[in-house]
Amino acid sequence: MVYLSRQFTSRQAQLRFDVESSSDHNPLDMMDMTFLNYRLANVQVAEQVTLANPDIVWRPQLAVKDIRYTQGILELDGEWYAGEIQKILVSMLAFRLEECGLHPFHASAVRYREKTIMFMGGESNHGKTMSQLEGCRRGGLNISTETLVIDEQGWVAMGSTNVYLAKRAKGTERSDLADQDEGVKKLFGKAPEVHHYLEPSNVDLVILPSIDGNYATSVKELEQFEKEYQGFHSMMNYFGLNQLLSPGLVMPIIDTEEKRRKRADFGHRFAEPRLYFMIRAANPQLLFDEVEKLI
Predict the structure, then answer these.
(1) How far apart are CA 254 and CA 277, in angstroms?
(2) pLDDT for 5-24, tens place per residue?
(3) How far, in Å, CA of 164 to CA of 74, rounded?
């Protein structure tokens, strides 16, 4: 048996993934990374492996499928689908990002009238992409569609720029989520043209969107507890504690009390100086009308 190593990176975050194999075939080399890059911004495979020790070890030749987390190493046995592997990579890379002072939020963002507006998917997730697209339709620039990575100062470090998830890798299927193209057709008719804003920027305004065709438009400013509560949900989206990876197999608990405390402290510092608003509206056009009043 030989260990075939690959190193995944996202900004400063680095993660070594070893595959135990009896040949020189590495299943990671055939993996389509569309889902991974949609779910977590700017993931690449490094040209060289520089980390001394693995973070993940996979033994695909074993007959029984299993997963466990022991002494800082995630171990996989048996056959795992590409989508399942990528969900694991999201969680592990998100922790490495935190160690670099970078915090992934389940959020979209747009640069509009010289302001960075963050549409946060907090406890609920009803309209962050459509709100961002409406901002682009009005001449704004796309910063993020699914994941917004914020540094310790509250500035945007990077965002996932794929507007839609074009295809889901096996192991990430979701029949409960509507086709995004269908939603765009209903809400916009024609997909808005999207141009990107890639420079670092301070987050000026945080919106929790809630779009439902039955809603009367309403705007409510959030107090400190609600701001932090929704933000913590948004950050925790990445760490797999509610993830069923495969029938009968859950994502192991890789979080720690120390990490959770640091995450909550960052959430407090990020939320305290910023205005957060919950906006309910029947469509993204009405919602963004209210955003324009706030900037």
Answers:
(1) 32
(2) 999 999 999 999 999 987 77
(3) 30
